[in-house]
Amino acid sequence: MSMHAEVVYHLARRDVVKFLRDRQNVAATLVRPLLWILAVGFGLRRAFDPGATGVDFVSFLVPGVATMAVLFSSMFSAISIVWDREFGFLKELLVAPVPRATLVFAKMIAASVTALFEVSVVLLVSPLLGARIDPLGALLSIPVLVAFGMAVSALGITVASRMKTFEGFGGIVNFLIQPVFFFSGALYPLEGLPPALSAVVRLNPMSYAVDATRGLCVGVHHFPIALDAAVVLGTLVVLGALAVRSFSRMQA
User: Fold this and answer.
1) How many domains does the chain have?
2) Which of 40, 84, 144, 198 can pair with 193 through a Cys bridge, CB separation 3.0 to 4.6 Å?
């Protein structure tokens, strides 16, 4: 194993182990998407017209909630950078004889692994809540969600590299997450939206991650799957480059 691969492995493993050892955080992370399915899925089920999509609302909602879980988990995983700065570990990383891009990649890998853990639970439990999910489609959606998680983590790293307090990071991240989530089509069909809202949804990269996941899991999608994958991968490249640039300029 090369030195860079070892660095990525050990740093990513450190963040994943730290996440798994925090039992309260793990429990909260797993319960949050299931509450969305129960509260929103069953609460708005009667108001949803299955004729518009061909599936019931719970099945329609699950892919959106799975993508939402990736968004929240991957974005907030970057708070480890603020934590490392607070306790002096970041200074050790910044003076290590490895490229900054390697450190960023390790953080992105760790974020995608923890998000994948949460998504797996959502997709496994959702049939027990009445969702009709294609198992093969759910497996095929994993690479899309991993790429999206890495892209979101890169955005979180960009923000965290400029923050010195937990409060500052939390405020900016919450400001970013809300519009990204609510204007993604995770909770509603994209057909029949007002033109202004439709334009915003089309500009939102998460819309394409949701669309790909929903298309693979329940067969309902608005864009071609190839376009969804291309937008997610393009977003990963752009945000990854931005994260490396911000992290390279960071001072401990």
Assistant:
1) 1
2) 198
